[in-house]
Prior knowledge:
By secondary structure, this protein is mainly α. Helix content is 65%, strand content 0%.
Amino acid sequence: xxxxxxxxxxxxxxxxxxxxxxxxxxxxxxxxxxxxxxxxxxxxxxxxxxxxxxxxxxxxxxxxxxxxxxxxxxxxxxxxxxxxxxxxxxxxxxxxxxxxxxxxxxxxxxxxxxxxxxxxxxxxxxxxxxxxxxxxxxxxxxxxxxxxxxxxxxxxxxxxxxxxxxxxxxxxxxxxxxxxxxxxxxxxxxxxxxxxxxxxxxxxxxxxxxxxxxxxxxxxxxxxxxxxxxxxxxxxxxxxxxxxxxxxxxxxxxxxxxxxxxxxxxxxxxxxxxxx
Length: 276
């Protein structure tokens, strides 16, 4: 079970999505060649890092995210299109997880050449190949682009037959990894918005409670930078409210200034955040 924390400052602790500069087909081929020249493999592939435990953990996190989103729908809470996609397509994700488990036996995995350096050190070279493809295509699967990318890689460094066989299943592994990171972010952003709503309700004395001093309520959020989701929700709820909550608005502006942004800039983000 994950340690409880304030959703207002938690997103910075999440792993970033697998996303880099979006490449055209031609640029992706060039990257395939440069990647092949840069990647070095170990002489002891059997001593690489196991991949299946992470895959299983990804499955656990995605199931938790699915359940949390389904619960939000049952409670008639607002959800983003991305959250709705996860609920509608979770059965496909679950099927892919089962196929990964069945199609990548541990004995076969141990024989794949492993990377000798970099942030994926110890993982299969083909995993690094799939990671780069996902990062530079923003997870958009295009079979022809994948073929061109792999061919470009092999013009510099041929892959083994086993690696070529593993390209498809490894690509699934990386896509699931990225989906896990995005799903965690979706769930935490929703929690941050709910936390912001609870703060404003206390400031305004909604829900049958009396109005509480802004300094008392907001003190616990001064331990780190506010997440965008939390700050955007505060801006939306506090704008055009009664002057009684002016201290909260001043506090928010100071916090945002320390993060090199403003409430006006966040207001621009609010529309796009609702559409994700």
